[in-house]
Design a protein that fits this description.
two-stranded parallel ribbon, 8-stranded mixed sheet, Prophage protein, DUF6978, 12 strands
């Protein structure tokens, strides 16, 4: 049984200020890798995660997502992959952003906004822009490694 958030709850969680939980320095994933970075709301009442993963063969492919309440994907950006087909059969080119939609979870994708995602082929800048989009005001520390 899936437990859905209301749209108002999801929107409030996405807009909520998020902070790193500690001073750990994270290594961004290489080929086929992924990391899960914990975050917390400014008041400490809500836990969040930023998931970052890279393709195994195609390093241009990956995703960055923001989850709340362990399993609820609030937002995700997919890059370097195939287009996405929405429940209404509309096809959205990649890169695209998925946003939580009540009753559908993260199954709806939207074209990225160039005002929000300023350099979608630069994975580091996409991560920075995504964290800003998700209101991560005290971001975790990262070693960029090969994440370019």
């Amino acid at each position: 049984m899936t437990i859905w958030l209301t749209q108002a709850e999801a929107d409030a969680l996405l807009a909520m200020e998020k902070h790193r939980v500690d001073e750990q320095r994270w290594s961004l994933p290489d080929m086929g890798g992924g990391i899960v970075v914990p975050l917390v709301s400014a008041d400490g009442d809500e836990a969040f995660h930023i998931d970052i993963s890279r393709g195994r063969i195609n390093l241009a492919k990956g995703k960055i997502q923001n989850r709340a309440r362990t399993t609820m994907v609030l937002a995700r950006i997919d890059f370097g992959g195939p287009p996405h087909r929405n429940p209404d059969d509309e096809e959205i080119a990649c890169p695209h952003v998925h946003l939580y939609r009540e009753g559908y979870g993260d199954r709806w994708a939207f074209p990225i906004s160039p005002e929000v995602f300023t350099q979608p082929t630069d994975h580091w800048q996409t991560l920075v822009d995504f964290m800003r989009f998700c209101n991560v005001t005290r971001p975790p520390e990262f070693d960029r490694g090969l994440f370019t």
